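Researcher: We are triaging several targets before committing to wet-lab work. For this one, the compound of interest is zinc ion. I'm pasting the protein sequence and the ligand SMILES. What I need is the predicted three-dimensional arrangement of the protein with the ligand bound, expressed as structure tokens, so it can go straight into our comparison scripts without reformatting.
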Amino acid sequence: MVLYSNNIHWENVHLTDILGRMIPCPVRIANNADCAALGETTAGAGKDYSDLVMFTLGNGVGGGIVIHGEIFEGGIMGGSEVGHMVVTANGKPCTCGRKGCLESYVSVHALLQEASQALQKEVTLEEIFAMKDTPEVQKVLHEYVEVLGIGIVNIVNMFRPQVILLGGQMSEYAKELIEPLTMMMKEQCYGGKHGMIPEIACAGLGKAASIIGAANL
Ligand SMILES: [Zn+2]
């Protein structure tokens, strides 16, 4: 049963029962970001690793944690919502009700808003990265990386995965962020100066990641 989804406004939806009546095979349910992380572990950028954390940077910020090749959801459902860790006390309001969540700063929606404000016109993600050398965009991207880096370092300090993957809409541009994020991990992760940091890479399967992961549940 889907207990709760703040983005599609579902509460207590008996999804497996409903789909089970239509689809002639057993139906299981899992979070899409968790499935994407599992898909990348099975057949994508994480296939050489057993332990990874994937950040899906899209309209929101999702996360998937894979430990020993399996999705980690916590003891009950609803774990690994990395987008809802607070990175700034009393910061920007988030859809979840808290203030200062990672999602409020590093979703694609947030990046578009910041860049549009800085440039005084509506811009797309593609345009932002095409203008990455202009001072206004440089400043916006610098601040974006700073906050994303805080979130990543927090997760690395807790889980110390072998690899961090950046997925979602940002994945095709995320290669621009890997170098500064690696620097931040070296400087800020516990033991980072001694080289104990994960790889960081772009997810490789795009939208297929969650489908492949779901098929592997
Ligand atoms: Zn939140």
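Researcher: Any quick observations?
Model: DSSP finds eight helices and seven strands in the chain.
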